[in-house]
What we know:
Helix content: 10-25%
Shape: globular
Order of helices and strands: EEHEEHEEEEEEHEE
Structural class: mainly beta
Amino acid sequence: MSTLSDTFIAPPCHEKIETLYQDEHLALIAKPSGLLSLSGKNPLNLDSVHHRLVQIFPGCTLVHRLDFGTSGLMVIARNKAINAALCQQFSQRTVIKRYSALLCGHLGDTEGVIDAPIAKDPALFPLMSICAVRGKPARSRYRVVERFYQEQEGGGGLSLTRVELTPETGRTHQLRIHCQQLGHPILGCDLYGGRELPGSERTPRLMLHASELHFIHPVSGERITARHASPF
């Protein structure tokens, strides 16, 4: 979910939205990094997933959002009834979402769970914070895919871990703040420490991609399994 202040002006996004599947009820799309999910209050932030898609699918609505820097799969409802049915699946946590990410450093454990409640902090806006008192329950699973070194210009290597992340709840910035809590922020994450490792400041984007989405088609009852390969 994007939580950007009205002072933020998104740079132009020249990448196109990829439509992976469509029928009369819904559409599955791949969002590029650097595109807002919804248009902002600031008129300079008019361009967004919704702004573009409503011109192709009149009356469509977003069922969920991805952060500005996150790329990957989104399901779009083409009418209000479908939106309500899909939103119910999200709220009941029957939708499975998986993400690919590059984390700073080499993660020690091969897999695990991050259980840390997340709260809004008006003093730190747009940042969220881990707070046992005011936070809402938030849980994410991670699994290491590979540990490697990325060669840097001028020598040296950036130690990185490719992981598969599965959020079990859907809090704002959940995966980004949970990875920071793990001690290995997502590479390129400007809000939660992903540009602090020497060499990471040149990363062109947030290295987080929504790679899998599993849900039930509200009309056919068919189980939809969508996958989209990570671009990094």
